[in-house]
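note to self: dont lose this again. the chain is below, predicted strucutre after it. 271 aa total, dont forget to put it in the shared folder this time
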Amino acid sequence: MKEKEEIQIIEENIQTKEKEEVQDKKKQEIKQEDILQKESDVAILEKEELETNEKIEDKQEEKKKTDGLQRYTKMIVVISILLFIAAMIFSTVFALINKSSDKIVEGVSIKGISVSGLTREEAANKINEVFDKQLTKNITLKHENNETTIYQTVITPEQIEMKYKLTEAIDLAYSIGRTGKVLKDNYDIINARLAKIEINPAYSYNDELLTNCIISDEENLPDIVKQSGYSVDGSNLIINKGQKGVAIEQESLKKQIIEACANLRRRRNHD
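---
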């Protein structure tokens, strides 16, 4: 009986010890879980702090870029305003200097004749002298047959009362850079210097005189076409036999003569 009780006591002690070990194990597990949870919380906090710092750094960097861009933009605006003011001052001075001058700007010519740097009077004298000579220049008209000239005559612009409107051309040349609009005047002056401006004066002519010249020349052609016909001399009937030949296309020839007269001018290297 006594042995049974001892055995029972031993078993109870063993069970108690096992229970204690299980409880200790559970406590260790709970403690380990707490440690892991704390480490996880710390890691999360560190990550959040790192992300926050990165965001702060990004914002600071973005602010630096924005501030730099704003400073650059302000600098560009200030420089642009200063350049604009300088350009306006220069343009105004440039326009006033040209306006006070009585000479035609550089780079202007009339029918290939340079009038740069001349006054109206000087330009008129130069242009009139040249065109007076040009009005008497011969324009040769030839009629050929098999590359052989069988008829030749000359005509001058003066014969058909060719007149160039030189005064208007000189006024136009003088007006370049003198409209009173600063920007336009400066552009015109610079454009004349760089690109050159050529003025072709308008002209007029006597169409009736030109037509008569052509008719006269046509009648003198040796191979002119002749229509057959007849005439009466007293009691005699005279029959005129026709003749095959050429005829002048008057409008086409007129156009060619006018173009030749209008294009008469001195060579540039003699200006």
